Amino acid sequence: MSNNAKTTELITANQAARLATLDELIKNILPLFIVPVPSKETVRAWLDDGKIPRLKSNPMAIRGGGPVYYSVAAVEKYFRARILPKMGGRVGQ
Question: Among 79, 28, 29, which Cα is nearest to 49's?
Fold first, then answer.
């Protein structure tokens, strides 16, 4: 199986996930787009710059309130728009 087909298969398999924590994104989603995966602080800064909304499990909490979730679809769209055009639109080069 080519790298392109394998990456497409992994992305398709991950589409069932709707929300993920930053740790889950770094572990499961981001390696499909960028290797090595940058630090957690860098990824969070990128997502903030891309205006990817953060969803709290308790939105009324000012501090804390449990884990923060990101939309997997929005994160994938953001990284496709940022990284794939630089690669000529092809995954696995």
Answer: 79
Q: What is the C-alpha to C-alpha distance for residues 49 and 46, in angstroms, rounded to an integer?
A: 5
Show the domain range for 82: 3-87
What torsion do the CA atoms of 44, 73, 14, 87 make, to the nearest 10 degrees? -80
Please give the Cα distance from 57 to 11 (Å, whole number): 25
Tokens 């929005």 sit on residue: 74
Alpha carbons 38 and 30: distance in angstroms, whole number: 9
Tell me, yes or no, whether 92 lies in a domain: no
Q: Is 27 helix (H, G, I), strand (E, B) or coil?
A: helix
pTM beyond 0.85: no
Hey, what amino acid is at 49?
Answer: D
Query: Which tens digit of pLDDT belongs to each residue from 4-17?
Result: 554 555 555 545 56
| Three-state DSSP state, 70 | strand
50 assigned to some structural domain: yes
**Residue 83 tokens, joined:** 């990284």
